[in-house]
Amino acid sequence: MTDFSSHRPDWWRQAVVYQVYPRSFADADGDGLGDLRGITDRLPHLAGLGVDALWLSPFYPSELADGGYDVADHRDVDPRLGSLADFDELAAEAHRLGLKVVVDLVPNHTSHQHLWFQEALAAGPGSPARERYVFRDGRGPSGELPPTDWQSVFGGSAWQRVPDGQWYLHLFAREQPDLNWDHEEIREDFRTTLRFWSDRGVDGFRVDVAHALAKDLAEPLRDLGTPELAGEDALAHLPPGTHPFYDRDEVHEIYRDWRRVLDSYTPPRTAVAEAWVPGARRALYARPEELNQAFNFEYLQAGWDAEAIRTVVTESLATARAVGASATWVLSNHDVLRHTSRLMLPPGTDDNAWLLSGGHAPRVDEAAGLRRARAATLLMLALPGSSYVYQGEELGLPEVADLPVEVLQDPLWEQTGRVRKGRDGCRVPLPWTTAGASYGFGAAGAWLPQPPYFARYAVEAQEGVQGSTLELYRTALRLRRKLLDGEELDWLGDDTPPGVLAFARHDGWRCVTNLSETPVPLPPGEVLLSSVPLDADGRLGPDTTVWLA
């Protein structure tokens, strides 16, 4: 059996990485906001779960214009979440428990509160301080029009005018000005940031919006022509590598430079790219001389359809293999509906419309959603490569779709003119106990209200309970460590019933998932684990996954 333990330099190739959204994980000081000491206190939960690493979403100083991804200082801790000393304690305790530590890196932009941007505003047009960002004069007789038709991910123009008349680029919120990666000072500063966290014991980095750093800033800046082509959708309509600000070929020079920094450590630090680009282009970010891995969002977007999942898995493994990387799999994260709810929505359902309905149009059967989510999880964990688990999915938490609008914190709500409800429903703080002001999250309330039904999903309610979702995850991760070997997958023969996915791993270990609406015969073999109890007649029921020896 191949040793994929955390002692290997390439531990990340088959790791299970647990994503922590710090403000919603655990609150040690009782102010209602999760913090680093709270995470440290709860690390035994992660070690007991059986994951290999934790990935920390941003904990840096931020005004939360985008949930922490508006970073005012890339080399410090938000004082509401703790201190650098608290981070050092967290990293040390994680390593003592055998857990790797991955941190979010946000290189495309800063907060508008960043010292550099404040200097740029004060210095005025043409100053060296403005060269660190992307400032341009506007169009029109008085410069009153944006420099281009480029659109922000959050809606509207990607340009914001400042009092002296110039405009700055922000591909996300206006509080997130884009950095100019043609500037050597920017490149050197992020080399310093990579070393800063690596020196503090960080084992890897998750690179936010990895495909957007390099931009074609040659004058005149070019329009994209129509609103439909002014955002990420344009990638499907332009020759690869030619979009003015997404997935440009030059971005790979940046990551080859980073790899030299990451490889200067023993063991080398790893990285995973968040790159919303087609599979073959995404794989380029995962080359050994760049970032090792890139998130596979096609799998998350495939829905509950056997043929769609089979296609995505086959293509993802092939593209990763072509560049010497391993595949990545994810079902939930801090930006999408929790898959316990999402997988139950009819195909074509608009996620935002469903959230605006409070989760009532259509209603999601809670028990059916949990059954399907458990099956999806066992399927994911059987695949070759790394699995990324989002906090709370080991409890089976559903999306909190009915948050009243007056409590929403995600800036998407206001920035889109109260059109997009945002991502708060997957960021509601975790329940640890069945009672208390915040179900054990902290001594007081929580920064987002937790629904009463969270009590039955709490860690305390599931700990040691046979058949609970928490115990299913623990058992699956323990078995996965024993069964895991190699990175190959063989789809089983033509006799597999319609709507069923069946594949073999090494030594005959098999995973079978019934995504259809009818029970199917259970293949022969010893049942190692089932997502739910098998039917009395031994058949594999709908929305069920089984691992067989």
Structural classification:
alpha/beta
**Individual helix count:** 15
Instruction: Give the N-to-C terminal Cα separation.
Output: 15 Å
Based on Cα principal axes, name the global outline: globular
The Rg value, from CA coordinates, equals 23 Å
Strand content: 5-15%
Question: Features of this protein?
Answer:
5-stranded antiparallel β-sheet, globular, disordered N terminus
Structure description:
This protein has helices at residues 36-41, 43-49, 84-96, 115-123, 184-199, 251-262, 279-285, 297-301, 306-322, 339-342, 351-356, 366-382, 412-415, 459-462, 469-483; strands at residues 16-20, 53-56, 100-105, 135-136, 159-161, 167-169, 204-207, 270-273, 292-294, 328-330, 386-390, 490-491, 500-504, 510-514, 527-530, 544-548. With 549 residues, it is of the alpha/beta class. It has an eight-stranded parallel β-sheet with strand order 9-8-7-3-2-1-11-10. A five-stranded antiparallel β-sheet has the order 12-13-14-16-15. A three-stranded antiparallel β-sheet has the order 4-6-5, with no helix packed on it. Strand 13 (500-504) and strand 14 form a beta hairpin. Helix 5 runs parallel beside helix 6 and helix 12 (366-382) runs parallel beside helix 15.
